[in-house]
Design goal:
It is a single chain. By secondary structure, the protein is α+β, with helices and mostly antiparallel strands. It is built from 16 helices and 15 strands. A seven-stranded mixed beta sheet has the order 7-8-13-12-11-14-15, with helices on both faces. A two-stranded antiparallel sheet has the order 1-2. A two-stranded antiparallel ribbon has the order 3-4. Helix 10 runs antiparallel to helix 11 and helix 11 (399-409) packs antiparallel against helix 12. The longest helix has 28 residues, at 487-514. Residues 99-117 have a biased composition (Basic and acidic residues). Residues 197-364 form the YprB ribonuclease H-like domain. InterPro entries: RNaseH-like_sf (IPR012337), RNaseH_sf (IPR036397), YprB_RNase_H-like_dom (IPR038720).
C-alpha cells in the first residue's frame, strides 16, 4: 500500500477511534441556534432542520419533514420560506478545540513531503543533464597483414624526443657489459641493443591465468635513432591469432625484450595466449626486466618501485590526466558491450607513455652507472641512489666501481651514510687496506644503534685481531659485540683474545726477567 492511501485511511481516525463503515450515513445533528453568542431555543412549531450526508453527498430529508434550505446561497441573503413567521439564523458554531494529531499521520506527511522533494530534484537533474554524445570511433586503424586484419595505433618519435629529463634515444648508447652488470645477467652482455624490443601490455585483469586476455600489446623499437611506437589492439575477443602472429614476427627481428615486470607477468601471459590460440610460440629472447634493476638501485628511496614512481622521481616526468591502471579493464569491457570507442584513447596513451618510460629509464640508469668508471662520481647524485649502484656493482664483482660509488654515498646522512661506510670498509679490507677499513667502520658507528652498532663492533674486533694485530682494541670491540653473535661464539672469541693477551704479557714478563742487568745497576 502506498503512502498516500495509508495517509487517507489514517486521516479520518481520531486517537482511539475507528473509521466509519463505508456507506453508513452520518447521524443528523441539529444545529444550535445562537443569538449574539447566546444559545436560543427554536420557536415552537419550527420544523427540525437536519443535515444529512451519505458518503459526503447531501441526502434528501425524510418524508414528512419540510425541507429548509440554507438561507444564504453563494453569499446573497435569501428570503425565508413562506409560512414561517421567523427563522432565526443560527450563529456560526464555536470552533471545536483541536484534536491531538496522530504521530503516525505526521510521520507519513513528512515522508510524503521528503519523497515529493526528492522526486522534484531528480526530475530537475534529468532535465539539466545534456544528451549523451554518440559513441566515437576507436583510436586505431585496421591494417591488412598476411595473417588477417589487425587494428593498430602507430607513431614515430624524433631522435631528440625527451621523456622527462632523459632522452628516449639514450637507450641506444648503452654498453652491453654495463647492462649485464646492472641486471646481474651475463647473457645480456653480447646483445645488440640497436635491435631491442620494448614491450608492455594492457590486459583484462591482473590475476593472470587463462581467463586474462591482453587486449593491447604495446611495442616500440628504434629505426635509426627514431623510436617507432606500434600498438596492437584486440577489437573483439576471439581475434587474437593475427595479433599474436604479428608479435611473433617482430620478436623474430629483435635481439632482446625490455620490459618492466615482464618476466613475471607480460611474457608468461603472452606465452599462454600463443598456446591457447594454437599459434607457434616464438623463440624466447634475452630478457631485460627493468623492475629488478630498479628495485636494486632505488630501494633506499623507501617509496616503492612502481613504474610511475620511477617516472616522476628519477626522470622528473609527471603525467597529467593519466588513466588509473585499475580502471583499464572496465573501460575495455564497456567498449565490448557497445560503449564509446574513443574512451579507450587514454588507455592507448597510458600504454605509449609506459613504452617511452622503458627506453628513457634504461638510458638514464646506464648513464648514471657508467659514472662509476672514474674515481670521482658527480656530487649532484642522490646518496641513496649512489649506495644502490654501489651494491649492484659489488654483487656484479666490479669492486672498483662499487668502491667509487660507496665513497660518494658516504656523504649521505643517517642509515644511508652508515651503510655506505660499512660497504666502503668491506671493499677497503678486500683491497688490502685495513687501516682505511677501520676508519670507515668508526665513521659508521657514529650513526649506528642497537644491533647495527654491535655488528660494526664485531667487524672492528675481527679487523683489529687479524689484520691490525691490535689485541687490546680487538678485546674492547669484542666486548661490545655480544648482540651480534651467538652467546657461545661470543664467549669463545673473548676467551681467545684474552688468552692471547695473557700469553703475550707472560712472554713479555719472562723476556724482562731473562735480560741481564745493566752495568752500574
Amino acid at each position: 500500500m502506498d503512502l498516500k492511501r495509508k495517509l487517507a485511511r489514517l486521516t479520518g481516525v481520531g486517537p482511539g477511534g475507528k473509521p466509519a463503515s463505508r456507506g453508513a450515513a452520518t447521524p443528523p445533528i441539529a444545529p444550535e441556534p445562537r443569538a449574539e453568542g447566546v444559545d436560543a431555543a427554536l420557536p415552537s412549531g419550527l420544523p427540525v432542520v437536519t443535515e444529512q450526508r451519505e458518503n459526503g453527498v447531501d441526502a434528501a430529508p425524510p418524508s414528512g419533514i419540510p425541507s429548509v434550505t440554507n438561507p444564504r446561497a453563494e453569499g446573497v441573503d435569501a428570503a425565508p420560506p413562506t409560512g414561517l413567521s421567523a427563522v432565526i439564523e443560527p450563529s456560526p458554531p464555536a470552533p471545536e478545540p483541536p484534536r491531538p494529531s496522530d504521530p503516525r499521520v505526521e510521520s507519513l506527511r513528512r515522508m510524503l513531503a521528503d519523497w515529493s522533494e526528492r522526486q522534484g530534484q531528480t526530475s530537475a537533474r534529468r532535465a539539466a543533464t545534456p544528451a549523451r554524445a554518440r559513441p566515437g570511433p576507436l583510436p586505431v586503424a585496421p591494417q591488412d597483414t598476411p595473417h588477417g586484419t589487425v587494428h593498430v595505433s602507430e607513431r614515430v618519435l624524433s631522435p631528440d624526443h625527451h621523456h622527462g629529463t632523459a632522452p628516449v634515444a639514450g637507450a641506444l648508447d648503452v654498453e652491453g657489459a654495463l647492462v649485464a652488470r646492472l641486471a646481474l645477467h651475463e647473457d645480456l652482455a653480447g646483445v645488440d641493443y640497436q635491435r631491442m624490443l620494448f614491450l608492455d601490455t594492457e590486459t583484462t585483469g591482473l590475476a593472470g591465468g587463462t581467463g586474462t586476455v591482453p587486449f593491447l600489446v604495446g611495442l616500440a623499437w628504434f629505426e635509426g635513432r627514431s623510436l617507432r611506437v606500434h600498438q596492437l589492439f584486440l577489437r573483439k575477443l576471439g581475434e587474437e591469432a593475427p595479433m599474436l602472429r604479428v608479435l611473433a614476427e617482430r620478436m623474430a627481428a629483435s635481439s632482446c625484450l625490455v620490459t618492466f615486470n615482464g618476466k613475471s607477468f607480460d611474457w608468461p601471459l603472452l606465452r599462454t595466449r600463443f598456446v591457447l590460440n594454437r599459434v607457434k610460440t616464438p623463440a624466447e629472447l634475452p630478457h631485460l626486466d627493468l623492475l629488478h634493476c630498479a628495485r636494486r638501485v632505488f630501494k633506499h628511496r623507501g617509496a616503492g618501485t612502481r613504474l610511475v614512481h620511477m617516472e616522476e622521481h628519477v626522470l622528473g616526468h609527471r603525467r597529467v590526466d593519466d588513466v588509473d591502471g585499475s580502471l583499464i579493464p572496465d573501460l575495455y569491457f564497456r567498449y565490448l558491450r557497445g560503449g564509446d570507442g574513443s574512451a579507450l584513447t587514454p588507455v592507448l596513451e597510458h600504454n605509449a607513455n609506459d613504452l617511452l618510460l622503458l627506453a628513457a629509464l634504461l638510458g638514464e640508469m646506464v648513464r648514471r652507472f657508467r659514472a662509476g668508471d672514474g674515481t670521482d662520481v658527480p656530487t649532484g647524485e642522490d646518496p641513496r641512489d649512489l649506495l644502490g649502484f654501489a651494491g649492484v656493482a659489488f654483487r656484479a664483482g666490479d669492486h672498483a666501481r662499487a668502491r667509487a660509488f660507496a665513497h660518494a654515498a658516504t656523504r649521505g646522512s643517517g642509515a644511508v651514510g652508515m651503510e655506505a661506510h660499512a660497504l666502503a670498509s668491506r671493499l677497503a679490507r678486500m683491497a688490502g687496506e685495513p687501516q682505511a677499513a677501520a676508519e670507515h667502520l668508526h665513521q659508521a658507528l657514529l650513526s649506528a644503534r642497537g644491533v647495527q652498532a654491535a655488528t660494526l663492533h664485531l667487524e672492528l674486533a675481527k679487523l683489529y685481531e687479524h689484520s691490525l694485530k691490535d689485541l687490546a682494541g680487538a678485546l674492547r670491540h669484542a666486548r661490545l659485540a655480544a648482540a651480534a653473535e651467538a652467546p657461545e661464539d661470543h664467549q669463545r672469541r673473548l676467551l681467545r683474545i684474552e688468552g692471547r693477551l695473557e700469553r703475550i704479557a707472560r712472554a713479555h714478563s719472562l723476556d724482562l726477567e731473562a735480560r741481564p742487568p745493566r752495568s752500574g745497576a
